[in-house]
């Protein structure tokens, strides 16, 4: 092995130094660098055994980074895209459901700040919140003005 070509473990550690990655993400990103069959799985097993790869930390990281701007549905989609356990994802999202109205209201206030003046403006605001993964009932309450000031 030459020093110009980092090992699979070195590449994985470089990726993990930037942010938390799930095992499935690392496998997808490093598959093209695997020279011997099974060497990638072995390297990732070692990193997981040492605690460098943690599914729970990935979930917490995504929820922490994205909860202020996105709804529960969009965060769930992101977590599932990372190949995480559906049971762990569902458990992490339970707390987000309770605060979804407050988070949607904060996002809406930052973007629009005022109730819509007509139907097209209301539709635009609803599409904005829907694209960010907020639920339909929450969107109707926020855009419809059913919130405490």
Q: What labels describe this entry?
A:
149 residues, mainly alpha, Arc Repressor Mutant, subunit A, 9 helices, elongated
Annotate the secondary structure layout.
Elements: H1 8-18, H2 23-30, H3 39-49, H4 55-66, H5 72-81, H6 86-98, H7 100-111, H8 119-131, H9 136-143
Overview of the structural elements:
By secondary structure, the protein is mainly alpha-helical. It folds into three domains: 1-53, Arc Repressor Mutant, subunit A; 54-98, Arc Repressor Mutant, subunit A (Orthogonal Bundle); 100-143, Arc Repressor Mutant, subunit A (Orthogonal Bundle). 66% of the residues lie in helices and 0% in strands. It contains nine helices and no strands. The chain has helices spanning 8-18, 23-30, 39-49, 55-66, 72-81, 86-98, 100-111, 119-131, 136-143. Helix 5 (72-81) runs antiparallel to helix 6. The protein starts with 7 loop residues before the first helix and ends in a 6-residue tail after the last helix.
Per DSSP, the total helix count is 9
Helix/strand/pairing category: mainly alpha
For this structure, the CATH topology of the largest domain is: Arc Repressor Mutant, subunit A
Number of strands: 0
Note the overall shape.
elongated
Order of helices and strands: HHHHHHHHH
* Unreliable sequence segments: none
Mean pLDDT equals 90
